[in-house]
Amino acid sequence: MQRQLPILIFAQSARFMAESATLAGYSVWVADCFCDSDTVAVAQRHLTIPSLSTLTATDFFAAIETLSRGEPCQLVIGTGIEQLYPLIELLPANILYLGNTVQTLSLLRQAKSFFPLLDSLKLAYPSIQFQRPVRNHATWLYKDLSGYGGQSIQSALTVSETTNGYYQAFISGQSASVLFLANGEHTHVLGYNRLVNVKNQFRLAEIRTPLDLSNQLEQQLQKAINSITQATKLKGLCSLDFIFADNAFSILEINPRFSASAELTTHHAQLFQWHLNALNGEIPTNTTNLPHSARLLAFFYAEQNSVVIDHPVWPESCHDLPAAGSYIQQGSPVCTIIIEAETHADCQQALQKQHLLVQQNLCIDS
What we know:
By secondary structure, this protein is α+β, with helices and mostly antiparallel strands. Helix content is 25%, strand content 29%. The strands form four sheets. Strands 14-13-10-11-12-15-19-17 form an eight-stranded antiparallel sheet. The longest helix has 18 residues. The chain is globular, with a radius of gyration of 20 Å.
């Protein structure tokens, strides 16, 4: 690993990764779908890419060629580009890839390999099948591991056409995640988080930390991520999504990359370097615990088709800020809100006030 080389980040949204890499002392080039104003503020080069649902291999190579200009750099991938993983093995000579192997990524992000892996490790997960359920459609979900943030999840009742997805039984419990560093053999937990969806949807609305779990459950989760790491040679900053109830948990998925919950840690200045160190086999033996205060990350989605006003005034808690004049389609993210307070209840009260302030920066597009 050559520290002097710039970092080229390719992701659906790269802002936090870019900020963390900048804090670690790297020059940053960014290709993402938004190029929000705070991303542009830290990136020496930036490029807006098409929606990931339409992104092609040609788009991918054109973007990294445009950003790198043929100069040597280090590529780090983020959220939402699972369908492009095979392209990692076809990079031009000037691009040094820093990340998990295609084999590891395929094991973890393809349903037909991931769930048999969990079976072999004797790790629980909600029942799955690849054919449409014959009965009790309402108790089944349709998912796709190439999705992110719950955007690819829907009720089996609403599925009209299937592609690379699978059906999974709906089970009751609390959704959560564990953020950790892995070096291919061992792991180090950075935090446990509660995941909250948009009402009556499966799209992620909030992440809350800390999440208090029993010692027994934490030990079981630690054993699970260690087993998966050793079986797949997983490396870097990762997260495991799970659902739990009555001191038992079921695994939903592994994210072998930066996840949104990383922003709720207190280690922003160290996090990107820890990620690169872990890819190189090194993980910290100890880190400062998360503060006792509550932290909340919330996604603010547009309630109607909207346009950002000419001179928006964003609260300090807001990130991923769209530029003045940006058109935001109903249901699309406007910004990310991060709040720290004494309790989770205090966070929720503060969030309501922030929502009102954000709304003032939008006018309805008629």
